[in-house]
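Entry type: protein chain
Record version: 2
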Amino acid sequence: MSNRTGKNTLSRRSRVLFLVAAALVALIAAYLSTYYALTVILISAGSAFSSVAILVVAADIIRKNRSRKDQQAITDFIVHDASPSVFATEDGGVTAMNMAAKTLNQDNAVLTVAAFLAPQFANPSSIVCRLQARAEGTGAAREDILTRSGQMRLSAHRVSDGYLWRLETIQHKGALGPRSHEKGLPMLMIGRSGTILFMNDAACVLLGSRIKSLDRVFETLPVSHGDVAEVTTAQGGELMLVAKMDAGAGRKAMYLLPNSPGRSNNSSWQVFQDLPIPLIRIAPDGAVLMYNQMASRLVGNALQPDAPLTNLMEGLGRSINDWLTDTLEGRLVQKSEFLRLKRDEREVFVQVTLNLVSDQGKPALIAVLNDATELKTLEAQFVQSQKMQAIGQLAGGVAHDFNNLLTAISGHCDLLLLRHDQGDPDYSDLIQINQNANRAAALVGQLLAFSRKQTLRPETLNLRDTLADLTHLLNRLVGEKVVLSVCHDPLLKPIRADKRQLEQVLMNLVVNARDAMPEGGEIKITTECLGLASPLRRDRVTVPPGEYVTLQVADAGCGIPADKLQKVFEPFFTTKRTGEGTGLGLSTAYGIIKQSGGFIFIDSKVGVGTIFTLYFPVMAQIAASTPEKPIAPAAPIVNFDDGIVLLVEDEAPVRAFASRALRLRGYTVLEAESAEVALKTLEDETLNIDVFVTDVIMPGMDGPSWVREALKDRPGVPVVFVSGYAEDSFGAAQMSIPNSVFLPKPFSLTDLTNTVHRQMR
């Protein structure tokens, strides 16, 4: 490690020499100068350089005196410390030590920190470098290290121009005294590369000598936690149970346990009590015979002698009794199983490895446990994300097909309504068909919202104004028993979102809050500006740092049980009775918020209430408003011009409706069922086309591809893209095509004709 103090000293000396040299040059130049004004200037400069040099030297002397006093204070402080302590410079040179450190190194001259630690550690230099690097950044660092003398704690503190190093012994309290289990259990300390760094006395006696590599210990490698492996001992091969635990800094402590701990009832098992590995001895019928302290802490108070294993944990895929039977009869295919503990306060998963041993001539089982809660949690999160992605893809595909069907149904219904007035007996039936087609379209829209494949129209919003416009409707939704209160941050910043979709999210959350309080109560809506200096990691997502506007919807209802909390955003999942809800409200809200770039979280407690919290990124700057793409206006356009429309649609019912609708408005329509047929039609150079109306996704060549090809010979022809998918699914392709607009399915007769008319103007 570099000597920063030495570099600073050298730098100060260089500055002093430079200043002295500059002063001499200025004075000599003043002596030689024949101009009075220049002589005065040079003498002033020389005096200034000399003064600065004197100040630098004085400051250096003061600093050295202060540093000497600081070091003396540190020396006085550690002199009576019972733990060995030394003070060293940045390059590791020891300048002071206490009596305990001198006693520890009676036979060796201590010149460096590494030499001070050499009697305790096999490779002290790497430890010193690691701790000093951490202490330099944070001011202090420490590490617990397992040595042949026990567990030691080495700490480094950044003080003055050096580091204070302190070595102390960690005392372990247990039923058999400090680290007493190591006296009877062989222990190997394994490094990252698999090298044996340290062996305790029991391991040396077992193996006959000190060994440096694992291939001289085990007949077969690798060995895992819980394995029964053949160990090459001083007396020959012996089957032993292997237990591993993390020892920090990438090292592993490996214990070699007797394979039959129960031969003398409790005496041999007593060795296992303080072992930092959860162990349970199980009878053939599944009853707990014995267990150690670590197992008791992991499993909980339910772990008692004679307690059936099935009362403590449950299998994730197979019966525990079947697993025990297979192990006893030697039919075990998979030795390790992941089980879930039956603990009420929290969910805990364990990886259990069973080993068959002989206990006084009778079979018994040793279960080696390993906490696998974090692993199973990550696995559950991955499976959940994959499931949600699959459902989203399915929803998007189903929505596309339904949109085609609904376009045909609602379109032909519009054609029929043109020929029937309100006095016609069939008029009410047609209105029912039209209304239910619109309801189906709204349901498909919810599916698209969940799969985040809907078309959004984002705009700059202030949540205060949005809620003000929506409050009257929300008050009507909650009814008379429920009170709706709204509280805003006085300095609310703008966000960018689709106002119509955001209003749908708010209505869904408020209606759910109302239904959770059948006896009445209060729903609180709160907005607030929040700045995150560091990432917010919660549930299964990470919210990046930045400024956010949060919106909370809180109720005092019945709450949601913990086992159902992670499923509330799944489509068609609902806690309501049949007929009271579709289960798409929260999944729709989830999709809209995620597609808007926000985040949604839920907190709930049974009997207390539920809080939904929405995070929206604050707009970095209010961009100039840009005109949206032309969408069919609400008012019908009655004056249509003649024109020729090339209609390309692979769905025959949709093509038939669109063709009739355009012809009714006076257009000449050329139909094509595919892109290839459309390009064939355009080979007639005498044919004049005023507008292309084309589906986006079709078998063979898609809509944007054939349009780009056609525009090479017919530049300037306007285009209307229609699709059951969202605009975002091909937004980049559309942006590269000039004078094009998007019309989502299902569209009505008026939507189609007005959009075509606007494109031709």
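Comment: Residues 191 and 251 are 5 Å apart (CA to CA).
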